[in-house]
Amino acid sequence: MNTKASSLSPTLVFLIFFHLSLVSCRNIISHGGGNGFTLDLIHRDSPLSPFYNPSNTPSDRLRNAFHRSFSRASFFRKYSFCTNNTIQSDTFPIPGEYLMKISIGTPPIEILAIADTGSDLTWTQCKPCINCFHQSAPLFDSNKSSTYKTLGCNTEECTSLGTSSCVGGNICEYQMSYGDQSHTIGDLAFEKFTFPSTSGNNVDIPNVVFGCGHDNGGTFNSYTSGIIGLGGGKVSIINQLDNEINGKFSYCLIPLESSISNASSHINFGNSAIMSDPNVVSTPLIKKESSTFYYLNLEGVSVENKTLIFKSSKISSASAVGDGDGKGNIIIDSGTTLTLLPNDFYTKLESMLVDSIKATKKDDPSGTFGLCYESENGIIDAPKIVAHFTNADFELLPSSTFAQVEEGLVCLTIVPAEDIAIFGNLAQGNFLIGYDLVANKVSFLPTDCTKY
Question: Looking at 116, 120, 187, 419, which residue is catalytic?
Fold first, then answer.
């Protein structure tokens, strides 16, 4: 028998920020001999996405991504030193990069939600709704699900949120608000999640903790109904499915020029995420107080045969990213488009690039990008750039590092930031990138993601 909240507290006791990434599950593949499945990821600018705007030019899309990247970075910066008892993530009004379809409940009801490696709690809009933003699909009705069950106030999942209260006697109510004054309030509950397949093979996961939102409002888009959290915190999907996927997931993101086609990126879970190729290189995944985010240690960046040691006065003295030992100085994030580096380091890196590039420099008319060159065919003769992570060298692809922002103009997609470092998804394009939260490592393998 389902237990429902009789009232909802109007008090929002904690600020939490979500990045809106877009994912679509077109086909899940079950692999024999173990737990593993694969989903398609549809870029927000792809014709397969409900957010696709055919009137936007490639220049429009890249410049919009520039502004989304800085919005995301501002919230990473602010909440990178939260305690283990809080949920942190980040948001801005415009949905981000990738969308996901899953089904919840018994019988299963399909929802379209926003997947994010920078968020933990998964939630969707639910009936009865005191205040909900408009969504195209019907609201989830927990009364019609035989597998729905609310969590008590003293459960570990409830107390770990740090943003909950007790209502209706013994029902855990989560309360969250966002930087743009959006909010969600509702019941924390168990429910069965189903990852559907067009081939008919479903992956059913029982007793997943999620938020059933009864009071939600702000700048959310009608195409989606909530968030799917893929961060590193306790209530993220990754950690909740630990018995099924053993802390492993990976993704292969198609490059920028392929995102406006019908090609799809992919995300893999469990055995499907195991990377056994001899060319795989791995770097430690650094644990932080802000357990939601994934931190790596960047030791330096090479341009041709010259190496610039990664040091930043901002990060070493008062950064939201670095610890006192200097480890874990960069966030790897699939939801930030550009790669952001601290101002002082970026200035030195840009100088090295200018010395190595023979093309004609040209100012970006919009002032968005700092280092740009004239180009008749959308490419330049870019030097070899390698990011040196601890124990792993990552050679950046020229097509991802210098992108055509408009006809005749190619610009660097690495940009300066105030006091944070983020390794963005453009740089990750055409690499299979695997996360192992048990072994605490992130692995890289050059891959043609359009054929993966």
Answer: 116
